[in-house]
């Protein structure tokens, strides 16, 4: 019997609302994610609104693998009423989650990524997820700080220049 899919639901943080991804967010998010510096550690380049819309259509449709859930959120500070970034979790087998985050350049340094990652890990912990991992580029100190704030610790494992961080929620 396979585990049921995990589906993104609204999550409330202290200052942020994590809203399940919708295709309609693509245009605003294309502007949020337009700084090429955001791709320094992850590679690639900013997507146009049309390209991001196509990506969001794929993400919202969900993984074709029934054992994999794609959970994606946009971040909206309640004080600003604009979108500022994203968090995501790929949940495999209902028990293992790989998470990632990005906050647009104008909103960095305000703790939004850490708050969102903590809220996401807490939400995953209330599901069937047992282990949370993130991959952080060895030189990306801000992202390492976000992983640590979310309770993850670095491991000795590396892949493509990124260190694997892990948090065991339950054995």
Please, could you describe this protein's structure?
By secondary structure, the chain is α+β, with helices and mostly antiparallel strands. The chain has one domain (11-168): Gcn5-related N-acetyltransferase (GNAT) (Aminopeptidase, 3-Layer(aba) Sandwich). 25% of the residues lie in helices and 32% in strands. It is built from 4 helices and 8 strands. An 8-stranded mixed sheet has the order 1-2-3-4-5-6-8-7, with helices on one face. Helix 3 links the parallel strand 5 and strand 6. The longest helix has 14 residues, at 112-125. The protein is globular, with a radius of gyration of 15 Å.
- CATH fold group: Aminopeptidase
Report the biggest beta sheet as strand number plus sense, adding barrel if it closes.
8 strands, mixed
Number of strands: 8
Class, according to the CATH hierarchy?
A: Alpha Beta
Low-confidence residue ranges:
none
Tell me the overall shape: globular
Radius of gyration: 15 Å
Summary of the model, kept short:
By secondary structure, the protein is an alpha+beta fold. Helix content is about 25%, strand content about 30%.
Distinctive features:
171 residues; alpha+beta; Aminopeptidase; eight-stranded mixed sheet; 8 strands; 32% strand
